Amino acid sequence: FRDNGVKCDACSKQDKGAIEISEATLNAIKYIVLAPPKKLFSFNLSEESLRELEIICKIYLNEKLDKEYKLDKLV
Prior knowledge:
- The chain is mostly helical.
- 49% of the residues lie in helices and 0% in strands.
- It contains three helices and no strands.
- Helix 2 packs across helix 3.
- The longest helix has 19 residues, at 47-65.
- It is globular, with a radius of gyration of 13 Å.
């Protein structure tokens, strides 16, 4: 989150704050960012990827909004 982006393996090893996520979670993030609003919620994720996405969302919101917010479960 420090650099506001996704890093390759080599770059992420240099960043102690980097979080490893699955390819499915990365694809879900790309879809969320790029999908038209009407199709935003038309994808499925495994439980593991959904948990990863939930963690990423919580960390992102807390860091960007400078306040901790309670998120309801996404499922």
